[in-house]
Amino acid sequence: MSSTTEAWSRITRWLNENTPAHADALNEPATEEQIAQAESKMGVHLPLELQQLLMLNNGSTAKHRSLTGNDFYDAQGGGDYSPFPSGYTFCDVELICSLYTGNRKASIAMQEPGSRYEYWKDGWIPVFRDKEVHSGLFLDVSASSGQDPVPVYAYEEESFPELAFPSLADYLNTVADALDGIRPFTVMGRQAPNLPTVHEGLIRW
User: Fold this and answer.
1) pLDDT confidence of 132, banded at 50, 70, 90?
2) Which of 64, 70, 114, 148 fits a disulfide with 48 by CB distance 3.0 to 4.6 angstroms?
3) The model's pTM
4) Residue 200: HSE in the Cβ half-sphere, 13 Å Cα cutoff
5) Dihedral of CA 166/167/171/177: which sign?
6) What is the pLDDT of residue 78?
7) 30: which residues sit within 8 A by CB, 6+ positions away?
8) What is the helix (H) or strand (E) element at residue 51, kind and residue range?
9) Backbone angles phi and psi of 74, in degrees to 5
10) Helix axes 3-18, 168-179, angle to 10 degrees
11) What is the pLDDT of residues 180-201, one digit of tens each?
12) On the CB side of 155, how many CA atoms lie within 13 Å of its CA?
């Protein structure tokens, strides 16, 4: 078992035991064919640790969006599918492909390719995201020279992406440690330490 899959198993075990609605929102595994099709459309290879993660659960999807009974989440349109810090959802392979190709087209349309200020660079693979705004986490394949693991960057509208975690495994372990009460969740020491609570069956960070 890799460090990525081990961290993910800790997260899913906690979700099953403490917030079953979140666990139920995790999709069935992606297939090798789905991953290969996405890579062909994107023109880049997904990092090994991301492939391993997708082949355990292919992202998260709201299954009880109008039935959560949780005022905090229902006010945002539902949230059983977003158990991660900052309310991020885990993108399935089809959404990863759609976001990547769409963002790359936007960059090209802006005539920014290669610029330091480029909207979305070649090799930025979105993995977790906010469903409402341009914000989330991506793996920077361009910075890895094709090697695993690859660094994780945080992005949001009108700001430069910042290094958030050395690898996907580091991010998942930080989430798992916070869920298990071992250490608060933080981003490279910049974000205020945060421990989750469970309210009406769903996570609050």
Assistant:
1) confident
2) 148
3) 0.87
4) 11
5) negative
6) 44
7) 54, 55, 58, 92, 93
8) helix 48-54
9) -60, -30
10) 30
11) 999 989 886 566 677 888 888 8
12) 24
